[in-house]
Amino acid sequence: MQNICFPVRRTLTHLWAGFLPLAALTILAGSLAANAQATFSSSPSYVWYDTAGQQMSVHAGSIVWTNDTWYWIGEADQAYATSASFSGINCYSSKNLSSWTYVGDILPPQGSGDLAYGNLVQRPKVLYNAATKTWVMWLHVSNGGYTVNHAGVATSSSPCGTYTYLGSSEPMGYPSFDIGAYQDSNGNAYLLTTDDDDYSLRIEQLSSNYLSAVSVVATLPNREAPSMMHVGKYYYVFCSHLTGFTPNDNEYLTATSPSGPWSTPADFATPGSDTYDSQDAWIAGVQGSEATTYIYIGDRWNPNDVAASGYLWLPLTINGTSVSMPEPTEWTLNVTTGVHTN
User: Fold this and answer.
1) Taking the mean position of all CA atoms in its chain, how far away is CA 292?
2) Domains plus CATH for the chain?
3) How far is CA 164 from CA 67, 190, 285, 321, in A?
């Protein structure tokens, strides 16, 4: 979802009917009421609203779970329309997966430096480091002209508390545009970073405290908006082509190790649908008593009013190296069993 060394060039020419969430989903299992249902229905109102009736602004973000609470953390876009000035990082919380409450701006703009209002601070990805008992947020940080392209890092003692910004750098000495982050079940964490200077997407292992990149474990074809997950024996990377705000057919790759070898990129939505007019933001998994449902979370960018951009959540079907996603329709998830129906 980046601009590349020239002014904003994203143009969204058409939008599918959006999804109005009657409940949201999480990447981890939690304490839920028996047979609780989360239903997503097709609606012309593709924007979402919090418990106060305010439009949610949480784009290109991530979802974490702790202490029976889900937190959705993403870009605060309400302060700008067609420009891409930094407005902060919003956090919403949910106890029951049926409603989201706005908590606050957890990384507000500063008067100068990386977090100055006129800069670009995008795609916040939050991981929890159990060894240091610290929540770590990675971000794409750039100036308005894309002459500086860094990955920034911030920390907090709680997922939705105010984060302390630690600064930014070129991970492993490479420029960094769109980013993603992933924490494996063994505690290893990875930064996924797009480098348009050498036309690649790299997977970089993070240090034990998650505050810096220490090695490049794999180099993939040039893509942006990356997400990563691990299911069974396979790792999966989801990503989009570099067309800015304009949607395209997002793709996925598979491997048996983060270091690869990785497969050739392939579509997971209907070819030619532009991933139902969306771009990958995060892959969430809801683990229940009977199954785990994996959810594609996409942004539906509206370049004429970025703050009014919507969200698309759809279940993924995963069978080994095969991944597919249905066209938008009403679907229901039993958040207790983890079973979904279309």
Assistant:
1) 19
2) 19-341 (2.115.10.20)
3) 22, 21, 28, 39
